[in-house]
């Protein structure tokens, strides 16, 4: 397939001259999930994104496909059941992206602790049943204090009781988006980045019939006509709905900002993803995750009202995360100068439901009264012995009484649930949710869309089994991942790559690896390795890569996890892109400047160079 700057021109032409069945606004994971399912259903589908695909929230997550064990601290068994089932679905439709990687859960005995050794075992056993991994290599187990410290010697031993190990999945969030987008394009959808909605079109009856948009690459404006329009803009959902002057859309979101910091793995060596209480008695937990020789940790969760396009890591975010990581790893003595990269992202949290927060309940879940907790444990134990059903457990949970409650909701307590709504003028909004649920959210939206299309427009679109609709790069047996990856690694080595280079390509591109290897025909580009040349040329021609930042941040992770390579890599990347995309020296200079700015932001240059605060005597 070809999905490039050249095909974008054709796509723009078609968007101008085609009445679509469905126009999707927003090219993050939610919009991408709707697009692939709609296109597979034969719905005449278009999607516009004002930035690069996944440039917003969907490339700024914790980069895990969570099983949701954190929700068990507020006894949201239903949430966990749904989450682990859906995680398995995502792994099946994108088998080269989410990968199982057991999570370590150190348990500390201190005020405000989420779990103790007793409750974590109950939670993990229940989790295994819900995830269907009992008796497998991924079944949970507990470890002693000494074993935890053997794994992570830098962890604080103070009040450490032991730990649990349970299944979770690492993820490449931006790759998951682009693979959905590529497959939607392959299925006939019209996918266009850098196109911004600036107005909503209505017919004489006041119904939405499309959008007035602006192509941000050439500043031209035009109309796109569609029977239905769906808003999947994530944190921008309320802002987009404000363009619809035929409706009064009440704000539905409370965006919060999450920050992650990256250091070299030698500064914070951890053997596996680790999830634990902050130790600050603030009801929060945080992650420490090894990746590609680095370690990243986060996240914050604070209300956000700033620039949605460019949320920044602020000094208070750094101070908080350094305080947390230095408390749990007291010998690390981490400072801002150790930070090699960072990212900040916005979460589109639903404002009016605090039932299950990002960290698993938070303070609002309260401390469960002793009688309620004892009754629940008895039912869970019976469930473990096959003497009770899940319905019995859920009834016990519904009877939980909290010892205290708080009137207000903190940012960490706002629901991560999703919302699907159609306004009276026909505009559909799909918002909220989390990356693990994207396929399921899209399926719900498609059920509504198909019903409206047949009822109002006599367009009959067959349903597809989206649980088996594999994304680009994921077209292989999900039960045979290791063997399939080994095959692609072998053909990469045969093409002249080292085993490590071949493994990197196979993990990134999955079943498209063979296509990537065809770009070796002209040999390496000046200043680039053969592997980097193939990867870049493939991304330019088949992944709608339009800028160096697209490539180095979202098509690869170089900007986040390979900061030490950027000095030598950036100019050859710009030069090769200039040759492919026909840039003159002026455009090359602009693109290099934009890349340098993105690198400086990621590396927190604006904080590291800031003058030290002056404290009065």
From TrEMBL:
Family statement drawn from the similarity comment of this UniProt entry: Belongs to the FAD-dependent glycerol-3-phosphate dehydrogenase family.
EC number(s) per entry: 1.1.3.21
Keywords for this protein: FAD, Flavoprotein, Glycerol metabolism, Oxidoreductase
Single Gene Ontology MF annotation: glycerol-3-phosphate oxidase activity
Coiled-coil positions: none
Protein's recorded name: Alpha-glycerophosphate oxidase
Catalytic reaction(s) noted: sn-glycerol 3-phosphate + O2 = dihydroxyacetone phosphate + H2O2
GO biological process, any: glycerol-3-phosphate catabolic process
């Amino acid at each position: 397939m070809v999905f490039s700057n050249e095909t974008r021109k054709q796509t723009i032409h078609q968007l101008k001259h085609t009445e679509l069945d469905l126009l999707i606004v927003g090219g993050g994971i939610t919009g991408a999930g709707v697009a692939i399912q709609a296109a597979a259903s034969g719905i005449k589908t278009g999607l516009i994104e004002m930035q690069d695909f996944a440039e917003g929230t969907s490339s700024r997550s914790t980069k895990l496909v969570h099983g949701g064990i954190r929700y068990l601290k507020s006894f949201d068994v239903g949430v966990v059941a749904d989450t682990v089932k859906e995680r398995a679905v995502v792994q099946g439709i994108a088998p080269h992206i989410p990968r199982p990687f057991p999570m370590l859960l150190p348990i500390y005995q201190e005020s405000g602790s989420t779990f103790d050794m007793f409750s974590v075992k109950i939670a993990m056993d229940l989790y295994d049943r819900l995830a269907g991994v009992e008796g497998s290599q991924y079944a949970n187990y507990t470890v002693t204090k000494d074993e935890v410290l053997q794994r992570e010697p830098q962890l604080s031993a103070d009040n450490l009781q032991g730990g649990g190990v349970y299944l979770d999945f690492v993820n490449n969030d931006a790759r998951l988006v682009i693979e959905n987008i590529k497959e939607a394009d392959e299925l006939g959808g019209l996918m266009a980045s850098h196109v911004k909605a600036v107005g909503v079109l209505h017919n004489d009856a006041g119904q939405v019939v499309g959008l007035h948009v602006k192509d941000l690459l050439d500043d031209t404006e035009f109309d796109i006509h569609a029977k239905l329009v769906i808003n999947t803009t994530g944190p921008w959902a309320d802002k987009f709905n404000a363009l619809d002057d035929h409706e009064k859309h009440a704000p539905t979101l409370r965006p919060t900002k999450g920050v992650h910091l990256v250091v070299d793995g030698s500064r914070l060596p951890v053997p596996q993803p680790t999830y634990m209480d902050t130790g600050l008695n603030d009801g929060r937990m945080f992650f420490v995750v090894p990746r590609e020789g680095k370690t990243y940790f986060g996240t914050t969760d604070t209300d956000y009202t700033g620039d949605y396009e460019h949320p920044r890591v602020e000094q208070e975010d750094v101070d908080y995360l350094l305080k947390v990581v230095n408390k749990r790893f007291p010998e690390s003595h981490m400072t801002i100068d150790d930070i090699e990269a960072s990212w900040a992202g916005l979460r589109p949290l639903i404002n009016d439901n605090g039932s299950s927060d990002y960290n698993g309940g938070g303070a609002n879940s309260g401390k469960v009264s002793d009688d309620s907790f004892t009754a629940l444990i008895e039912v869970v134990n019976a469930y473990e012995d096959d003497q009770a059903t899940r319905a019995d457990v859920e009834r016990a949970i519904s009877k939980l009484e909290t010892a205290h409650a708080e009137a207000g909701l903190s940012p960490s307590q706002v629901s991560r649930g999703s919302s699907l709504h159609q306004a009276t003028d026909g505009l559909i909004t799909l918002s909220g949710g989390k990356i693990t649920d994207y396929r399921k959210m899209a399926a719900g939206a498609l059920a509504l869309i198909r019903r409206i299309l047949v009822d109002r427009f006599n367009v009959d679109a067959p349903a597809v089994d989206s649980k088996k609709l594999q994304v680009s790069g994921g077209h292989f047996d999900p039960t045979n991942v290791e063997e399939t990856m080994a095959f692609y690694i072998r053909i990469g080595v045969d093409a002249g790559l080292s085993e490590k280079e071949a493994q990197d390509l196979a993990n990134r591109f999955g079943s498209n690896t063979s296509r990537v290897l065809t770009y070796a025909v002209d040999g390496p580009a000046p200043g680039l390795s053969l592997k980097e040349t193939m990867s870049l040329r493939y991304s330019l021609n088949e992944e709608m890569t339009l800028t160096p930042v697209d490539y180095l941040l979202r098509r690869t992770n170089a900007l986040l996890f390979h900061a030490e390579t950027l000095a030598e890599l950036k100019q050859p990347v710009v030069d090769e892109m200039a040759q492919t995309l026909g840039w003159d020296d002026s455009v090359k200079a602009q693109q290099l400047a934009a890349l340098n700015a993105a690198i400086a932001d990621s590396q927190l240059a604006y904080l590291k160079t800031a003058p030290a605060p002056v404290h009065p005597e």
